[in-house]
Design a protein that fits this description.
The chain is an alpha/beta fold and 240 residues long. It has ten helices and 17 strands. The protein binds coenzyme A.
């Protein structure tokens, strides 16, 4: 997506690397201010990873600036999978892994701190799985999405919301913990929009329907898109 100022993982590498370097530098300077047998230094190594190692994004999805991805090692590496036509505001953060085990005597990762043993072996810190975000999802400024979250198609995540678990399609979520305040449309309309999977249609079809697509007349849009789907050539969706 060639919109100046917008960021897509995998693009504009040079602008992203300094950020990661800066974050690492900051983390190390914190480690120096809080020396503790070297444990902190071991931890900061895991604090920042480059987003494009772990994120995939569908077409026409964008982030206002590179999202912060905090990724902690887990036995199976966790990923972020984002659908098409998603809008991700500034300062959104994603946490992969990083859940300390509250059922143990201590939540401190003592094996790592004392012996340098990885979370993968000790299970002291684990994750809840990949973060999966559907299509046409809007994530507001400063939201935080936790490991294992699954956000349905069409959902809205409010500014500063903290999201975990499964979020229904077209739900509007606010707050911490994120709570659903409403759905964008009634259940039948939501089912029809999802069945239409308009986000899979080729760009030229969507371009022709651009005014309908951005109108509030959902019914007329569905009347336009549903016949297309019924007669859909299965290769149509893949041809963009
Ligand atoms: C989530 C959002 C879309 C909801 O908008 P809305 O449907 O018009 O909701 P309303 O303003 O009617 O608010 C409904 C309730 O949710 C609360 N609420 C709304 N947004 C909230 C938020 N981000 N965090 C906490 N509570 C929020 C309101 O206080 C209100 O509570 P009440 O019913 O107790 O009075 C919007 O508030 C928001 O957060 N937008 C994100 C903006 C943004 O980040 N833009 C960045 C550029 S992309």
């Amino acid at each position: 997506v060639d919109i100046p100022g917008f960021y897509r993982p995998g693009e504009g590498k040079s602008s992203r690397r300094p950020t990661a370097r800066l974050a690492r530098k900051l983390a190390f300077s914190l480690a120096k201010r809080f020396p503790n047998d070297g444990g902190m230094t071991a931890l900061v190594d895991h604090l920042m990873v480059l987003p494009d190692d772990v994120i995939t994004m569908g077409r026409w999805s964008y982030c206002d600036n590179p999202p912060q991805v905090h990724s902690y090692p887990t036995p199976v590496p966790e990923r972020i999978v984002i659908g098409a036509f998603c809008s991700i505001a500034k300062d959104v953060s994603f946490i992969l892994g990083g859940n300390h085990d509250g059922r143990r005597v201590t939540t401190s990762p003592v094996h790592l701190l004392f012996n340098g043993e990885g979370y993968e072996q000790t299970g002291e810190v684990s994750g809840r799985g990949d973060i999966i975000i559907g299509n046409d999802v809007w994530i507001g400024r400063g939201a935080m999405v936790l490991s294992g979250a699954r956000i349905g198609d069409g959902a809205i995540v409010g500014a500063r919301a903290v999201i975990s678990g499964t979020i229904a399609p077209y739900a509007v979520m606010v707050g911490s913990p994120g709570r659903e305040i409403r759905r964008r449309f009634d259940d039948i309309t939501i089912a029809r929009l999802r069945a239409s999977a308009w986000w899979d249609l080729p760009d030229d079809v969507l371009r022709d329907a651009i005014d309908l697509l951005s109108s509030r007349d959902i019914e007329t849009f569905l009347d336009f898109v549903e016949p297309l789907r019924r007669g859909a050539n299965p290769t149509l969706a893949a041809s963009h």
